[in-house]
Each structure stands twice: as structure tokens, then as C-alpha cells.
């Protein structure tokens, strides 16, 4: 009889000891598990650190609008992820290397990019030609201070339903389109961007 009462008591003590050890480790595991979800956002933050030079570490990058859910390659051959633009207004300038209207827009677009640096992003999206011609346009027109994507396949143009060159698309900080159209010579671009930067 004693063995019957002693065995359950011994098992209960052993289980409590194990549970006690488990409790001291489980909170750490629970913390680890709890920090795993926050580790997931943390691991999502390193790409955002690429946009960290703007001071927007976790918040804006965590909420990338659908409009900025695209990647590309710059005319210089570097990878580019548009999510790094999240959290600020964005000007997308759709141009082609042989387009004389685009050449006329280049000086004003470069000026606007410099004027709004730190408050908004300007991104050129070149299409309808090859990367060498696009790189030549950037060099010849002096618009190399802001990034330009070589959209040789037209994927980004299709995403924004662009059917002709020299079109500007202005997105507010939430990724909503607030303007789309041609601005000859880039006239009015600064005013339109001022409206969304405050």
C-alpha cells in the first residue's frame, strides 16, 4: 500500500520538478516566441534600414502601399525596391530616351528633386528603349541626382497603366495617386508636389 501511495507522490514530485524547470525555460521560450513575431518585423526592418537614411525606420516601411509594391533595376544596373520610398510623397516620371518632351522636362524635374529632397522622392521610370540609351539620357540631361529605373519590359509602366512617355504620377505619402498627366517642361510640378508635402 505504501508503494502505491509513494509511487504517485514520487511521480507528482518529479513532474512538479520538471514543470518547475520547464516554467523557468518556457518563459524564455515564450519570450523568444513572443519576440519571434517581433523578430519577424525586425527581420523585415533591415530592408527598411535601407530607407533609414530618411529617418523612417519601422513605421512607414511596415505599411508599404500597393502602389509601391514593385522592384526594378536602375539604369546603372543596381537593384531597386520601391518600398524604400514608403512614408513620403513620390513623383514617378515616366520617360523615354528619345522623347524631346522628356528632355524638356529634365531640368525642372531635377530641380524639383533637389528642392524636395528629404520631404519627397522623385523616381524616373525609363521605358521604350534599351538601358544604354536610358543611361545616355540620364548623363546628357543631368538628371543623375535621383534614381531612374530601366523598365525595358514595361512592367512598371503597365502597373501604373502608362501608355505614353513624359507622364508624371504623383503619389501622396499613403500611396494614393493625386496627379497623373503631362507637364510640358515640368511646369507646375513643384506646385503639385507642394500640395502633398505641406
UniProtKB/TrEMBL annotation:
Entry annotated with the keyword Signal: yes
Keyword Signal: yes
InterPro entries assigned: AhpC/TSA (IPR000866), Thioredoxin-like_sf (IPR036249), Thioredoxin_domain (IPR013766), Thioredoxin_ResA/DsbE_sf (IPR050553)
Thioredoxin domain location: 61-198
Organism per entry: Streptomyces synnematoformans
Signal peptide boundaries: 1-19
Name of this chain's protein: Thioredoxin domain-containing protein
Transmembrane spans: none
Biased composition (Low complexity): 33-49
Keywords: Signal
Top-rank lineage group of the source organism: Bacteria
Region of interest: Disordered: 23-63
